[in-house]
Write a structure and sequence with these properties.
Blueprint lengths: L7 H30 L8 H27 L8 H5 L2 H27 L7 H23 L4 H25 L16 H23 L7 H18 L9 H5 L3 H15 L10 H13 L2 H4 L3 H4 L14 H35 L3 H7 L5
Helix pairs in contact: 1-2, 1-5, 1-6, 1-8, 2-4, 4-5, 5-6, 6-7, 6-8, 7-11, 7-14, 8-10, 10-11, 11-14
Length: 369
């Protein structure tokens, strides 16, 4: 497989794009809180301002990257030479940013014509789709850049953390009962929300951390989790008086990946715990499954709200601690955790199977094995 080397200058471009996407996903979470506190609906709100500043940052950074590529890459000839000079990750980011910009215009039109909208509306779905494409492009571009090893690895871990957050937020679009607007009710059925919530968050989390463990950095899982924890803390926990007091407790989530990283480092030199399984892949799978079991606390308060409708818990988001207390013994521990472990394992197996296809590996160029 021929690797496409990214110029070192582009590493900063990919980093700025990932920062822009982080602002977007953080503002999206803040926007949900904003809707819960302030009932007056307008397109021009502080969360929307931060969100579209993030879109602008990603877009401007991408344009700068394209200009740099066109000026410095000279090994392309023919009628499509200009197109070939643009690195594949930047092309993917351009596509994602274009969707984000269109979604912003669409969202403004939607608010003007339909007033208050829910979480799952067509412009919101377009926005998170564009964010997903943009962060995947940034992740691929960062992965291919080998010039500044330390900054490259740190940037890649941050990209993984942002991608992790966006993937779970994608699940929330179809599971949280927050999608009833003034004109349209896109709330999922309680059963569908239950099934998706049981399977997808754990599977996506396990896939992310299985991939992350291929990076040559001792505390890789900690850095990835810290990226998510930082965004979630700023956007959801301390952005309101209802959850701000939970911040010290929420920050304890960092002990989970930190402990797993320490176990990984210890067992690398002393493999007694995994002596029966000489293949290091077994350790990666086990550690990935373990961290996936804690998505309910990583993604608090949204995680518990996925299930409240099915269990007929008539409480609002700001009463999520009570919702957690209702669910912990009758659902989370006896049902959610075991099913999540199975879902995480199946997710890793499916991910590994996909990477047996050369076309997929050559296209995305992110090696996880």
């Amino acid at each position: 497989m021929k690797n496409e080397e990214s110029p070192s200058n582009l590493l900063w471009i990919y980093f700025l794009v990932s920062l822009g996407v982080a602002l977007q996903v953080g503002a999206a979470n803040w926007d949900i809180i904003w809707h819960g506190i302030i009932n007056v609906e307008s397109f021009f709100t502080p969360p929307h301002s931060v969100l579209y500043f993030g879109v602008g940052l990603s877009l401007v950074s991408t344009i700068a990257g394209i200009i740099w590529s066109l000026r410095h890459k000279i090994d392309s000839v023919g009628p499509f030479a200009t197109y070939r000079k643009i690195p594949t990750p930047l092309k993917l980011i351009v596509f994602g940013c274009s969707i984000e910009v269109i979604s912003g215009l669409f969202d403004n039109w939607w608010h003007a014509n339909f007033g208050f909208d829910g979480l799952l509306s067509p412009p919101h779905l377009m926005l998170i789709s564009g964010m997903t494409l943009s962060i995947i492009g940034a992740l691929i571009g960062t992965h291919l850049d080998k010039t500044h090893k330390r900054f490259h690895i740190i940037s890649e871990m941050i990209c993984y953390g942002i991608l992790w957050m966006i993937l779970i937020n994608f699940v929330f679009m179809f599971t949280l009962p927050f999608s009833k607007g003034q004109f349209f009710d896109f709330n999922p059925s309680p059963t569908a929300a239950l099934m998706l919530g049981l399977m997808l968050p754990a599977a996506f989390t396990a896939i992310i951390f299985y991939s992350v463990q291929n990076l040559s950095f001792p505390f890789r899982m900690t850095v990835v989790a810290a990226s998510l924890i930082t965004i979630q803390s700023l956007a959801t926990i301390i952005s309101n008086i209802y959850f701000a007091g939970l911040l010290p407790l929420y920050l304890l989530n960092i002990l989970i990946p930190l402990s797993l990283d320490i176990i990984s480092i210890y067992t690398k030199n002393n493999n007694k715990l995994f002596r029966k399984h000489s293949n290091a892949d077994h350790k990666r799978i086990i550690l990935s499954i373990i961290i996936s079991l804690f998505f309910i606390t990583f993604y608090f308060p949204w995680s518990v709200n996925m299930f409240k409708t099915f269990f007929e818990i008539d409480l609002i988001t700001f009463e999520s601690v009570t919702i957690f207390e209702h669910l912990v013994w009758k659902f989370i521990i006896p049902i959610l955790i075991p099913v999540s472990a199975v879902s995480a394992y199946i997710g890793i197996l499916v991910w590994k199977k996909l990477y047996e296809y050369a076309k997929l590996t050559n296209k995305f160029k992110v090696v996880v094995g």
